[in-house]
Amino acid sequence: MERTPTTAQPPPVRLVPYGEGDFPQLVRHNTPAMTEHLGGPEPDEKLRDRHHRYLNLGGTGRMFTIVTADAEEAAGLVGYWEAIHAGQTIWETGWGVLPEFQGRGLAVRATLLAVEDARADGRHGSLHAFPAATNAPSNAVCRKAGFTLVGAGDFEYPKGRWSRCNDWALDLTGGAPRESRTG
Cα 12 to the chain's mean position, in Å? Predict the structure, then answer.
């Protein structure tokens, strides 16, 4: 099922479910510049494992390719998946927009579409994003997409690497996000 924005605000994007043919897109995201706030590029084996996870999220989330509606170009990835946070099962979200498409608002538009999809699923009451505190563009996406900053903490990602991250939350039920206690 493809998703298109419900409002006519530029820039137009649509989300296409991540598929077997999207591995080259994942490879394009695995560069030092694109993974600067994620611990650096992953080895090939880990990247293939990630591709397999994205293909097999099933009922535990969804991954999408961000496609520009005007030129039909693959511009990035966005998705959400189940995670345990503060003792509760939540949706966690993440995104990446390729360098040649950055700075045009595509990440915000794509994230808003992913929010709509997670809300429609109805399984979890909140959606969280955990960008590195030093990742100004991703923190700006959270703010512009309507997330509320509820705390900060040290998160392990990838395994063995700790970094200071912000906890941004968006209530999917219509109420305000609850305060998160992260360390």
Answer: 18
